[in-house]
Amino acid sequence: MSEHGTDQQRLREILAATSCVMLDFDGPLCAVFADLGASTVAARALDAIRQAGYADVARRCETSDPLDLLESIAAEYPELVPDVDAVVSDAENEAVSNAASTPGVVELIERCHASGRSLCIVSNNAESAVRAYLAEYGLTRKVDAIAARRPDDAAHLKPDTRLLRRVAEATGSSPAACTLIGDSPSDIKAAHAFGAHAIGYANKPGKFVKLTNAGADTVAEKLELITSEL
């Protein structure tokens, strides 16, 4: 065990069996809404719903999480998905222009790339925002595949396995050869439902326990602990 509680031996075993590393975007790669604020984005989307004449829907679906809102709309009011997705996507593209990289993520990507493993992004955030961020930081060529939200994915975000399947197919990887690094229980659930390993990234207080309880195969509080085993 490290001083952070991470089981390095378990990390080593998981990554030794991994040929495709799937990295979540918001959290492991950057903090998307650190400046703009997720609640601000959710408020914009709720305003768009009201302006479309669905004030009652906005009231029933009120939340401070824009992706939770998008999932709720996709499940119950699919006709509103294009409007809500457009607002959230615009905000994500705005937000990533100022989003700082997570400490250690560039080194993780480079080590993964150098080791011959596939490095892919699997994200509930908009594909356009993910691509814009990677281009801004010169990381596009070091990422083998991207599976992020498109308008028709709103009802199939993690913990659904659609995005993971998309990456696995693009890289020719079997589920057992894939490992998803994510910072939310939905990442852990998606990985296990797909048949992949799940490494939790506990970047905030309380997440170590939350991700462990969600069933993560192991949890790391710093990306460097993962990079050292690649």
From TrEMBL:
Gene3D superfamilies on file: HAD superfamily/HAD-like
Signal sequence extent: none
Keywords: Hydrolase
Highest taxon in the source lineage: Bacteria
GO cellular component terms, semicolon-separated: cytosol
CDD domains reported for this sequence: HAD_like (cd01427)
A GO MF term: phosphoglycolate phosphatase activity
Any one Gene Ontology BP term: DNA repair
Protein name: Haloacid dehalogenase-like hydrolase
UniProt organism field: Actinopolyspora righensis
